Automatic annotation (TrEMBL):
InterPro entries: Metallopeptidase_M50B, Peptidase_M50, Rip2-like. It comes from Oleomonas cavernae. GO terms for molecular function: metal ion binding; metallopeptidase activity. Its main location: membrane. CDD domains: S2P-M50_like_1. Belongs to the peptidase M50B family. The keyword ATP-binding does not apply. This is Site-2 protease family protein. Keywords: Cell membrane, Hydrolase, Membrane, Metal-binding, Metalloprotease, Protease, Transmembrane, Transmembrane helix, Zinc. The chain crosses the membrane at residues 58-77, 97-119, 177-196.
Amino acid sequence: MMDFPGFVHEVSVWALPIIFAITLHEAAHGWMADKLGDPTARMLGRISANPVRHIDPLGTIILPGLLLLTAGFAFGYAKPVPVNFRKLRNPRRDMVLVAAAGPGANLLMALVAALLLHLVPLLPDQAGQWLGENCVNAILVNAVLGVFNMIPLPPLDGGRVAVGVLPRALAYPLSRVEPYGMLIVFGAVFLLPLIAQQLGFAFNPVFDLIAPIINGVVRLLLSLTGLA
């Protein structure tokens, strides 16, 4: 039988970190695009901390909920912020800055969460525990989201950064992968591990690759904030 109070507690300490990580990631893309000449996101109201403007029912609610129930962790995505790259003042350079703004926002949020951990001993026990769990989850979620999105595969942010900085002879073939990029990501992140599990062994190539980077980012943030 489900431990309903325990489930409610888990939701309460994961919901805010996930919602803010996803929401401000997308808002940062729109904010940067607006600063560089494309007002599309601003005109559509997407430069906002209001989660309602960014929520994708599947990626922001259903997927994290299912993962929390079945796997004990949560991950998700929001509606992509529309960017008209032709309106950017320097499209090739500015595409890199717009793409990098989302993961940059995640790293900033993880840093803020680490700083907030210093408040935990100053609060009553239950409030301090709740804030502490939220902050720890925020550090983890933002580190994962920031690093994962920098994988150099379009349409992930890292793919768009790579297209912007690589020589054109390499950038053009990479850009043509974009229509299939999310299928590749889905296969590597979910399908391959599921098949491997059915065959009796653990295999998750994406997270095996990025886990050391995520751990390094977390250690750096804790060191910068005096927590390690």
